[in-house]
Amino acid sequence: MANTREPILQPIPITSLRPTQMTVGMREVNEKRKRLREYWDTHKSTKKRGEFLGRHMVPVVLGPDQRHYVVDHHHLARALHEEKVEDILVTVIGDLSMVERDAFWGVMDNKRWVYPYDTKGERRHFRDIPKSITALKDDPFRSLAGELRRVGGFAKDTTPFSEFLWADFLRRQMSRKGVEDNFDKAIEKALALAKSKDAVYLPGWCGAVSDD
Fold it and tell me: What are the coiled-coil residue ranges (predicted)?
């Protein structure tokens, strides 16, 4: 089984990509859209846009149906789609095309290439995972976790779906309405929670270490 990253230089339609998670943080998607528009405005040539996409290839696993299953950068793919970009370049990090269809999601789960949790942080059946990037639901706690990392609440980590783990931690401590009504205040509270010992088990935790 190949696990080396193999770029596919032939563009893949974004609408054909299959998600491996159920949610995204739409606030984060919109921030990415804003940065994309700023880049497009500064670099109007087709060549420059092509170079950007070449630097932001989406990692995928090739499934038994020859479809491309996205294992990271769901937010970027959604943002590009919302900005009317039709195709994207992908990097194959795993080939599971030989796996029987009935066993596919179990193998993906074992390799931690799938995160079937809904907007309440509850695990769902694999069949509930959306079939398209466009059908991913908004989880404001995922946006909160993403912003928390950017402001230094925790360090970037290689643990798969690490920001979802932080999102679930924050979900247990804060109300969704509070996050949606006052995001800035929610970030302040999230920063305090992130530095506490309650979060010590989470990937990238960088709270104060006691000398005791």
Answer: none
